[in-house]
UniProtKB/TrEMBL annotation:
Protein name according to UniProt: Uncharacterized protein
Length: 64
């Protein structure tokens, strides 16, 4: 998960730099919409990986 967080942090910094360069409101809205779509795809993908990984590594709890 830390690799994904680092990537998203870098991605956010690139997004912030791009939005400052965008001059028109339409360009800014497009950048924001694209950012939300890409971050949602990354979040969905990381959740799928996490769920698949957690299913493979279930631990058994023994109660005494």
């Amino acid at each position: 998960m830390s690799n994904i967080n680092a990537f998203l942090f870098g991605f956010t910094n690139m997004f912030n730099a791009d939005i400052l360069k965008a001059t028109s409101l339409k360009d800014r809205k497009t950048l924001i919409n694209d950012f939300h779509k890409k971050s949602e795809e990354l979040r969905k993908h990381s959740n799928e990986e996490y769920n698949a990984d957690s299913k493979n590594h279930k631990t058994k709890v023994i109660l005494f």
